[in-house]
Amino acid sequence: VKEGNPYLDWFETYTSDEYKRTVDICIELIDNQADDTTESQKIKAEKIYVQAHKLQLQGWDAYYSMEDWPV
Questions:
Q1: pLDDT tens track for 1-43
Q2: CA distances from 16 to 10, 20, 34 (A)
Q3: Residues of 9-35 as b/e, b for ≥16 C-beta within 10 angstroms?
Q4: What is the reported pLDDT for 1?
């Protein structure tokens, strides 16, 4: 990503060593918690995860199409 690119800060954040360490810690925490969850809790967590991704995709789509998206 070249200097002056509006996504430079975003790119540098998500490719930084600090971000990777944070993600690794979060993955470990979630994996440890998953060992002690019921099947019902796992299904609920999966539904929440899927919904979060749908909302993220809608946000990116709205941005791409320059859509007004009231919060």
A1: 788 888 899 899 999 999 999 999 999 999 999 888 999 999 9
A2: 10, 6, 27
A3: eeeeeeeeeeeeeeeeeeeeeeeeeee
A4: 73
| CA 22 to the chain's CA centroid | 13
Length of the chain: 71
Could you count the other beta carbons within 10 Å of the beta carbon of residue 42?
A: 11
pLDDT interval class at 69 (50, 70, 90): low
DSSP secondary structure string for all residues of the chain: --TT-TTHHHHHHHTSHHHHHHHHHHHHHHHHHHTT--HHHHHHHHHHHHHHHHHHHHHHHHHHTT-----
Q: Tokens representing 26?
A: 């979060």
- Residue 60 identity (one-letter amino acid): W
